[in-house]
Amino acid sequence: MAQKPSIPKGTRDFSPAEVAKRNYIIQSIKKHFETFGFMPIETPSFENSETLMGKYGDEGDRLIFKILNSGDFISKVDDVTYSSKNSTSLTPKISEKALRYDLTVPFARYVVMHQNEIDFPFKRYQIQPVWRADRPQKGRFREFYQCDADVVGADSLLQEVEFVQLYDAVFTDLGLKGCTIKINNRKILLGIAEVIGAKHLLIDFTVALDKLDKIGEEKVKEEMMEKGISENAIAKAQPLFEMKGNASEQLEQLKTLLANSEVGMRGLSELEEIISTVNMIGLQSAHLQLDVTLARGLNYYTGAIFEVAAPEGVSMGSIGGGGRYDDLTGIFGLPNVSGVGISFGLDRIYLVLEELNLFPDSLDTSLDVLCLNFGKGEGLASLKLVSTLRKSGLRADLYPSDAKVQKQFKYADKRNVPYVILLGEQELAEGKFVVKNMKTGDQKSYDFDAVQQFAETIKSDF
């Protein structure tokens, strides 16, 4: 009995229509990356485990897909380690490589390895798949694409302003108006942890806080207490959960809370500069919003952090995020190189555009012209015609066999082809071909020497 085919949970096959829609998003993002001066690079799908492990916090490390060593990897494990059934001690002995978790850490590794070949500040973009051993759910997959843009070697806050503009430009281009770009600063969170007496538990504090919009205030406080943050410390952080008003009013409230924290006040100063500059320049369709509970769980962020929410009314997690990292390259031997970057969540953006019906109708058309096949002689003449149309820039094809005309028309209809060419025995004898508009049903004859005229006519329709 044949095995029933399947794919791993959290992965997907994509139909031609889905690929066309994904490419539409990617092309928009890529266009704006290049308009803003970013250059493309690519890195391997898997890295040495030591490159990835320890860069994303405990939760991130658990979600990294490990790759088993080739050959008889178990024979190299000593009996004590093997019998202990301890994955922490066993994994390094049987797995030396892992699928990349994101594009930022591999980028930092790339910068260090190629530091003598690149010019700083270095602006790069990267559009490639990443893998996470996460629990699959709506908008969350185990294999998905990230579309990243980063700048390293520049500590000016104008870079943060530029990334806000980049988000705004892409989402406006996609017709996704009303997105909210949330912003915070990790220095503010460090300052809060400092003033409430939980500086030594900063990671636990920020990881829990980052879940506020998902699990609510009470659950966040419960998780903080489970991680060892005292009730007294949580009580001191209460103003965080009660922040109201516009950005200016919230910044004033934070100044009171962080009055005794030097690092916290630095974070406030950076936020004020970014927000005021963005407000001065203006945005096309997105909104910039201060969110003091935004934490982003990745350990390497040290300054401004971003997260993008879909337009109001769309139930979806973040569709983009990023932030400033002051010394990510330092872990690979190149200290004091500041960087900042953002990522677009391709898969979630796709789901949002689908839900809001924002994909252009033209994406459903994979062919401009289909030439029907009426036999060997007519087929050869049709093939020459198709070749000329292709050289004119049209997506043209010839039906591969002389099947029943009804079947060929049905094929054209299913593929949403706007124009069908009929070149039968009579047309061939007269030196003509007939074009049928599949939408209106109108037909028109053209001489063979008017192929270019026909091509230009229908190109103007697209």
**Residue runs with pLDDT of under 50 for 5 or more positions:** none
**Secondary structure tally, helices:** 20
- Which class of secondary structure composition applies to the elements? alpha+beta
Taking all residues together, what is the mean pLDDT? Answer: 89
What is the number of beta strands?
Answer: 16
Name of the top-level CATH class of the largest domain: Alpha Beta
Query: How much is the radius of gyration in Å?
Result: 28 Å
Q: Which geometry do the CA atoms define?
A: elongated
Number of domains: 2
**Main beta sheet:** 8 strands, mixed
CATH superfamily of the largest domain: Bira Bifunctional Protein, Domain 2
CATH architecture of the largest domain: 2-Layer Sandwich
- CATH third-level topology of the largest domain: BirA Bifunctional Protein, domain 2
- CA distance, first residue to last residue: 50 Å
What are the SSEs and their pairings?
Blueprint: H1 16-35, E1 39-40, E2 46-48, H2 49-52, H3 57-62, E3 66-67, H4 79-84, H5 87-94, E4 97-99, H6 104-113, E5 122-131, E6 143-152, H7 158-173, E7 180-185, H8 186-195, H9 202-209, H10 212-215, H11 217-226, H12 231-236, H13 238-241, H14 247-257, H15 262-281, E8 287-290, E9 304-309, E10 320-325, E11 339-345, H16 346-355, E12 369-371, H17 376-391, E13 396-398, H18 405-414, E14 419-422, H19 425-430, E15 432-437, E16 443-447, H20 451-459
Parallel strand pairs: 1-5, 7-8, 12-13, 12-14
Antiparallel strand pairs: 2-4, 3-4, 5-6, 6-11, 7-9, 9-10, 10-11, 14-15, 15-16
Helix pairs in contact: 1-7, 1-16, 7-15, 8-15, 9-11, 14-15
Binding site for L-histidine: 102-104, 132, 146, 150, 296, 300-301
Organism: Flagellimonas sediminis
EC number: 6.1.1.21
